[in-house]
Amino acid sequence: MMEGMTTAPGQSPAVRQGLRHPLDPDPARSTKARAVFALGLIAALTGLFLGGVVPATVALQLSRQARREAYASGGFLTGGAWLRQGERLAWIGLGLATVTVVLAVVYGLVRLAEAPYSQDFAPNVN
């Protein structure tokens, strides 16, 4: 039935999928991928308040583990889109935290530069 089917006009015939082995596990979404996405979202939302550094770091470490497990599973663990989005959000959270630290340092340096360097005595003191 699938022998003469094509996917679109002008293309080669569609390849027939082989039967799955009965002992192969069903594809399942990785729970670590959801956790990476949730931690990345928290990191992006709290990045300006420097609270996003910890969840972003945990998300990036967890994403490494999830990628290793997905590779080792041979395609039976899904959730790559959640993983990529979580990593992006974690990097955004780290970037926002970095911007906050840089702005705080610049503000502190400007305030320090405006401060008088010597002690200001009253006019009647020698």
Helix-strand pattern, N to C? EHHEH
Q: Can you give the mean pLDDT?
A: 85
Net shape: rod-shaped
Could you give the order of strands across the largest sheet?
Answer: 1-2
In percent, how much strand structure appears in the residues?
Answer: under 5%
Low-confidence stretches: none
What is the straight-line distance between the termini?
Answer: 106 Å
Number of strands: 2
Instruction: Give the biggest sheet.
Output: 2 strands, parallel
SS class: mainly alpha
Q: Please bin the fraction of helical residues.
A: 55-70%
Radius of gyration: 28 Å
Instruction: Provide a count of the helices.
Output: 3
Region (Disordered): 1-25
Transmembrane segments: 35-60, 89-110
Keywords: Membrane, Transmembrane, Transmembrane helix
Protein name: DUF4190 domain-containing protein
Task: Write up this protein.
- This protein has 126 residues and is mostly helical.
- The protein has a domain at 28-114.
- Helix content is 56%, strand content 3%.
- It is built from 3 helices and 2 strands; from the N terminus they run E-H-H-E-H.
- It has helices at 31-46, 53-72, 80-114, and strands at 28-29, 77-78.
- The protein has a two-stranded parallel ribbon with strand order 1-2.
- Helix 1 (31-46) packs antiparallel against helix 2 (53-72), helix 1 runs parallel beside helix 3 and helix 2 (53-72) runs antiparallel to helix 3 (80-114).
- The mean pLDDT is 85.
